[in-house]
Amino acid sequence: MKNKLKIGWVLTTLLVGTSACASPQTETDNGLKEVTLILDYLPNTNHTGIYVAEKNGYFEEAGLSVNIIEPGDNETSATLVAANRGEFGVSYQEDVTYARCAKEPLPIRAIATIMQHNTSGFVSLKSANIQTVKDFEGKVYAGWQAPSEEAVIQSVMKKGNADFSQLTMVGADGSGFAALGNGVDLQWDFEGWAVLKGRLDGYDLNYMPLKDLDERLDYYTPLFITNENMIKNDPQTVKAFVQAVKKGYEYAAVNPEEAAKILHEVLPDSDFEFLKQSQAFVSHEYQADADTWGLMRDEVWDRYTQFMQEAGLIEQMIPAEQQYTNEFIR
Predict the structure, then answer these.
(1) pTM
(2) Domains: count for the chain
(3) Mean pLDDT confidence for 316-321
(4) Measured on CA atoms in the order 34, 39, 44, 45, is the torsion positive or negative?
(5) 329 domain residue, yes or no
(6) Distance (Å, rounded) from C-alpha 308 to C-alpha 151?
(7) Cα torsion angle, 226, 229, 232, 236, sign
(8) Range of the domain at 165
(9) CA atoms 312, 89, 47, 4: torsion sign
(10) Exposed (0-12), middle (13-18) or buried (19+): which is 283, by Cβ within 10 Å?
(11) Residue 20 confidence (pLDDT) above 60
């Protein structure tokens, strides 16, 4: 799984540089406002709505020219957006909470969620016979070795009356599911991408959704963020961006195969059948049970923030309203 939580390791460095501004927004020759969107990782079906908005002209209709980039090594979109290195970013609920709860809070805010529910969970080979978290005892887990990762595993094992001290945690070596059965028993991955690809590649996998183990862990991942200065000083651009990507995700939700074709243009070396199946999965998850795409709820933010505090990941609670806003969705 992608190392999502480097933010806790680089906050101090970024605090020194948050006053350094990106280049002022400019206009293209045809009058479009240029903005930068920083992804969380390599393009995948979590991002399809972005590329649909680009391909179908929704950004242009909104008066925007969007430069889509990936973060560099040892960087996160949250810290880069906080430092004005890009107007928008794809991030995660926990990164926003970390940033807002820092001793010197970073000025970011979530503005839309891509998924309504957490679609990640624990993966193992069926031959390992790991049916419950109690079965984690005596096994080896490979991950990205972040504090929140350990806190989550400790929590679900405690809730399942399992002894966390009986689980061995090691760093992932980058080999993916090839490590399973070769010194590793468990991993944590997204169902609609890595797990689906693993099954297509012939791995016989068990999957345990995180949200089924503890409702507090059904948090928003991934989501869109912006700098609070953008909300204060240029809300029109934020609104234009959010409404354009909303149209992109709404299109992808009802046209998964066409959306997969658009993403395949971005990822021509990817297997199209895999992209179609992945897109069919995530298209159903984009809006799910919400009234509209992108909408977030206080209780989801409050539950996971409370979990982070109880786990010692943050020192104090922070209100949901200081972490996200729905004002640009409606």
Answers:
(1) 0.91
(2) 2
(3) 96
(4) negative
(5) no
(6) 8
(7) negative
(8) 120-217
(9) negative
(10) buried
(11) no
